[in-house]
């Protein structure tokens, strides 16, 4: 659970997360999980926020069983696939979840 202050502070990024989630047609469960993952580990640098947003969407979709490919999420979020690949497992671990071992 995250504070209302976090949600207000990062509102523009959360709106962008919803926009990308719309493009991907993600379920509400995947979106909720992605928001939680994003707010758990928001980077200080604005230039890194989009990559973390994309990794959060990818990981959230996996957790919710609404998986999308890294490539699809990268395209929808306008980041490189490598940006997602290098971050999503750490996001899950930061949230106390165990990433898949495949």
TrEMBL record:
What are the residue boundaries of the Transcription factor TFIIB cyclin-like domain, all occurrences included?
16-93
Query: GO molecular function of the protein, one example?
Result: TBP-class protein binding
| Alphabetical list of Pfam families matching this protein | TFIIB (PF00382)
- Gene3D superfamilies xrefs: Cyclin-like
* InterPro entries in the cross-refs: Cyclin-like_sf, TFIIB_cyclin
> What superkingdom does the record give?
Archaea
- Name this polypeptide is given: Transcription factor TFIIB cyclin-related protein
Q: What organism is this sequence from?
A: Natrinema versiforme JCM 10478
